[in-house]
């Protein structure tokens, strides 16, 4: 038999042709009836152990030889190398009493080696499939990008309150920018906002403002918030709308540095103050005599020394 132990010993598996190797793998291990009898004793009682066919059923990798009447490892016979244990390839196992002890570790090694010797193969894709998948991925990325940045109509509202354009707007009112602003912010009253903007464009006092913050500050100083209510609402929207997320991210980074593990018991008021000092560092350094003012403020507070009473 091609799959017998004697055949594999005389003519190793590595030297055979591909057709013979395929037939041997399909046949599996040779499992003849073995003439094995072994005298054993247990607790003063002697008995005879004989070969049983159930030994093959419990171990799918086990092979037998009807000439040497011994057990062999079928995978080791096929793929034996320099490090392969000779007991299972050359000598054979005849000890029925300790067969389970001898093959327990060996079976685990064979199972792991069989699993490692047959890695999962990736399915090869044709160039057409690769091109189709790449096209779908690119289309998905472009679609999500367009959806993410489709809401840009609110950005044009900033052009309505640019002081350097007020003189130009007195000649040609920005109807398109106003309509897009009203579409982005339906809460605004369009007719009233147009009337207020027309008045702002005509006055020289408003053309000296530098930005939306200065214009809003001018309205507050002159008590014009009720007169230009819609413009004030639009200014508040423009001032509070963040252009980027850098400031919010900087706040979280500052909190990690300010409130450490050792400062975990810090109150909310102190945390807010330290975080504001850290985030607005440049503005603090530009304040004249800031350190002196802090010292004077601290010195003007009431005395807070602890009183120690010794008994």
Automatic annotation (TrEMBL):
Residues 16-41 are annotated as: Disordered. Pfam families: Dimer_Tnp_hAT. Residues 16-29 have a biased composition (Basic and acidic residues). GO terms for molecular function: protein dimerization activity. Residues 213-282 form the HAT C-terminal dimerisation domain. It comes from the Eukaryota. This is HAT C-terminal dimerisation domain-containing protein. It comes from Triplophysa rosa.
